[in-house]
From TrEMBL:
<dbReference type="InterPro" id="IPR024607">
    <property type="entry name" value="Sulfatase_CS"/>
</dbReference>
<keyword id="KW-0732">Signal</keyword>
<keyword id="KW-0378">Hydrolase</keyword>
<keyword id="KW-0106">Calcium</keyword>
<dbReference type="GO" id="GO:0004065">
    <property type="term" value="F:arylsulfatase activity"/>
</dbReference>
<dbReference type="Pfam" id="PF00884">
    <property type="entry name" value="Sulfatase"/>
</dbReference>
<dbReference type="InterPro" id="IPR017850">
    <property type="entry name" value="Alkaline_phosphatase_core_sf"/>
</dbReference>
<comment type="similarity">
    <text>Belongs to the sulfatase family.</text>
</comment>
<dbReference type="InterPro" id="IPR050738">
    <property type="entry name" value="Sulfatase"/>
</dbReference>
<dbReference type="InterPro" id="IPR000917">
    <property type="entry name" value="Sulfatase_N"/>
</dbReference>
<keyword id="KW-0479">Metal-binding</keyword>
<protein>
    <submittedName>
        <fullName>Arylsulfatase</fullName>
        <ecNumber>3.1.6.1</ecNumber>
    </submittedName>
</protein>
<feature type="signal peptide">
    <location>
        <begin position="1"/>
        <end position="22"/>
    </location>
</feature>
<feature type="domain" description="Sulfatase N-terminal">
    <location>
        <begin position="58"/>
        <end position="475"/>
    </location>
</feature>
Length: 621
């Protein structure tokens, strides 16, 4: 009995301590400055007024597209029409030296928090098959790494998100929650979209706020745009002077490539010349627009990509159709962003809105493999892939499904991925290459940008957009959010470059790591290591990952100030510089939780069925 009383006392004491700590946390956020006496007459009331954003603080819209290469849009020299992005850039700025993490979830986690991907535990994904129980890899953004939504909400903004979130752990993604790692738990007042990495555009795994809802059959782009507009209108009706933050992140243009024929049919015949002709056209236009330096040379096709002229008539017909649909998908996505911009202008909010558009969360997708994909593959098909000839035959039989609701996994062949990444080598997932990590950025802010239509070459990364936004809005990063002391913001504000094209880059060092592929940038130099999986568990997935990489796994060295698209490997010529950068990468690895080095081999062992091991004969006595 005595021991039970002691235990009860201890529990009561701990509960009291917990309540006291909670009160202290509340007081740290909003300290009481009045007087508490024995009676009301002896006391002084103090009311806490709602937090207001700084006077004149702009609305903020972040647009993040999915799987769009550097050279896809007309805004950055491409042949796919994107008039909305053209207009925003012509009245704002084009950043041509901006970077992502090379794959979706790491990019999104870094963007929303202003911190490197492993610092916020998103070395890979938040999916069960690709997260690991280590600080840099468990796929759970910690509370001391507050998001832009949490910061702006505490600074007097309303906060909305629509489209792809991609950062909720699989275990938490049901209607039972917990919801602390849903968008609502990371600072968003309202959310409408999907929690995973990809979804069907006509039958999306749709969520509104904290519950799954039934989609209405329209294309997801249409639905999220309507919802974004409704969020804004509802807020402006209730609080006209209160600014808002909108995170607009469509599933487009990630697979499945699905879009109405009214968008894809205008591109019929426009890609019959193939990916080689496409690259040449885009390359010339990029030079004409000043997107790339005049002395840049177009690299050779990536390994295993065949010359268009060498393809059969059936292959050309099939592959051209894949690209017609993709182009329509991208133009339609631009149109939906245009609906949002037009609405902001209609309600007289556009001039006081900062719009930052990241055209792709990584380079163009390699996941269509050599022959493209139309319908979803079974686990057996992934483990035992078709030959390229069999794949072409099957796809030709389904060619009319590309772009339709029945094309449940439509994705173009690898040749188009390199073309969309012009002028770079390689593609999505390749953290060692600019083709995986360099994506265009548009900055639009009528009140703050005077050099309209300007081009900016300062080095930037997605972690820079949070501090950029805060500086422009006049908001200081908080030391505490909801009682949790916050870690340091790791990004570098780009605000210094808005009206100074010649400003020296302030973001000096940046690492990249995606499942073995890695690189380190420092002050104009870059070292990269192209990891090639060696897993015995081969198949379409491994093929898509490894087909682009060189035969060797040696480190390479580039002076990217002089060699824009990494054509000249200086590793043997300048081994000292290479060793310096490799040592710097190791420092970053320790500092930002990259260890342990988890590779695609490790992921594949979890994701794919493993061959059954034969039982060894007993050797004991």
């Amino acid at each position: 009995m005595h021991s039970q009383k002691l235990l009860l006392a201890a529990l009561l004491a701990s509960g009291l301590a917990a309540r006291t700590n909670a009160q202290n946390i509340t007081q740290q956020q909003q300290p009481f400055t009045g007087t508490v006496g024995k009676t009301l007459a002896e006391s002084k009331e103090v009311w806490t007024n709602p937090v207001k954003a700084p006077a004149g603080a702009p609305n903020v819209v972040w647009v993040l597209l999915d799987d769009v290469g550097f050279g896809a849009t007309s805004t950055f020299g491409g042949v796919i029409r994107t008039p909305t992005f053209d207009s925003l850039a012509n009245n704002g700025l084009r950043y041509t030296n901006f970077h992502t993490a090379a794959i979706c979830a790491p990019t999104r986690a870094a963007l929303l928090t202003g911190r490197n991907q492993h610092s916020v535990h998103e070395g890979g994904f938040s999916h069960t098959w690709s997260s690991f129980g280590f600080p840099g890899w468990d796929g759970r953004i910690p509370s001391d790494k507050g998001t832009i939504a949490e910061i702006l909400r505490e600074a007097g903004y309303n906060t909305f998100a629509v489209g792809k979130y991609g950062l909720t752990p699989d275990q938490d993604a049901s209607d039972a929650g917990p919801f602390d790692r849903w968008p609502s738990g990371k600072g968003f007042d309202h959310f409408f979209g999907f929690l995973g990495s990809q979804t069907d555009q006509y039958k999306p795994d749709l969520v509104e706020d904290n519950a799954h809802v039934t989609p209405d059959g329209r294309h997801l782009n249409d639905q999220i745009t309507d919802k974004a507009i409704s969020f804004i209108d509802r807020q402006k009706k209730a609080a006209p002077d209160k600014p808002f933050f909108l995170y607009y992140a469509p599933g487009a243009t990630h697979a499945p490539h699905q879009v109405a024929k009214e968008w894809s049919d205008p591109y019929k015949g426009q890609f019959d010349g193939g990916w080689d002709e496409f690259r040449e056209k885009v390359f010339a236009q990029q030079k004409k627009q000043g997107i790339i330096p005049a002395n840049v040379i177009l690299p050779e096709r990536n390994p295993n990509i065949r010359a268009w002229a060498s393809l059969s008539a059936d292959e050309k017909k099939l592959y051209a159709r894949f690209m017609e649909v993709y182009a329509g998908y991208l133009t339609y996505t631009d149109h939906e962003v245009g609906r949002l911009v037009t609405h902001l202008k209609k309600i007289n909010q556009l001039d006081n809105t900062l719009i930052l558009v990241v055209i792709g969360d990584n380079g163009a997708s390699k996941e269509g493999a050599l022959g493209g994909v139309i319908t979803r593959s079974s686990a057996a098909a992934i483990a035992t892939p078709l030959s390229e000839a069999e794949q072409v035959k099957n796809n030709l039989a389904q060619i009319d499904l590309i772009g339709t609701p029945e094309g449940t996994n439509a994705n173009y062949p690898l040749g188009w991925a390199q073309a969309a990444n012009t002028p770079f080598k390689y593609w999505k997932q390749d953290a060692h290459s600019e083709g995986g990590t360099r994506n265009p950025l548009i900055a639009f802010y009528p009140k703050g940008i005077t050099d309209k239509g300007g081009i900016r070459t300062q080095y930037g990364h997605v972690i820079d957009l949070l501090p950029t936004t805060l500086e422009i809005a006049g908001i200081k990063a908080p030391e505490v959010i909801r009682g949790i002391k916050q870690d340091t913001i790791q990004g570098t504000s780009l605000a210094y470059s808005l009206n100074d094209a010649r400003a020296v880059s302030r973001h000096k060092t940046q690492y990249y790591y995606i499942f073995g592929s890695r690189s380190i940038y420092h002050d104009g130099w870059k070292a990269g290591f192209a990891y090639k999986p060696t897993s015995a568990a081969t198949g379409n997935l491994v093929s898509a990952i490894s087909v682009a990489n060189p035969d060797n796994n040696d480190w390479q060295l580039y002076n990217v100030n002089e060699d824009f698209n990494e054509r000249i490997d200086l590793a043997k010529k300048n081994p000292k510089k290479l060793e310096e950068l490799k040592a710097l990468f190791e420092e970053q690895a320790k500092k930002y939780n990259i260890y342990p080095y988890i590779t695609w081999d490790d992921v594949l062992k979890r994701r794919l069925p493993q061959p059954t091991q034969q039982q060894q004969p007993a050797s004991g006595k």
